[in-house]
Design brief:
It is built from 3 helices and 6 strands. The protein is an alpha+beta fold. The protein has one domain. The longest helix is centred in the N-terminal third of the chain and has 13 residues.
Length: 102
């Protein structure tokens, strides 16, 4: 599948490393669009979430449970929500929303 191959290439070339314990992964980090956040959370819940929120696109083989702690750029974050995107039955990528751990 072309889209999956392109994403894997982008992850290898442009992805930033992040760590879960001693395991290393690569992801494309970005600020999540407001529409995505409004789709996933009620206005009340959205107002209570810590900031800044980040989204990270990873390979579909990376499966981190909600609540998993990860380290990126020397800071600790927690997986708030994980979504898997598929083309038919083939997983293409996984998108995780992460929040800072105070």
């Amino acid at each position: 599948m072309i889209v999956r191959e392109c994403l894997n290439h982008w992850l290898r070339r442009y992805g930033e490393p992040f760590y879960v314990g001693l395991q290393s992964y690569r992801g494309l980090f970005f600020q999540p669009p407001g529409n995505l956040l409004r789709w996933l959370f009620s206005p009340e819940t959205l107002n209570e979430l810590p900031r800044p929120l980040w989204a990270v696109a990873v390979a579909p083989t990376v499966s981190l449970a909600d609540g998993t702690a990860l380290t990126w750029r020397g800071a600790t974050y927690r997986v708030l929500r994980s979504l898997e995107f598929r083309f038919d039955t083939t997983p293409v990528y996984r998108l995780m929303l992460i929040e800072p751990v105070a």
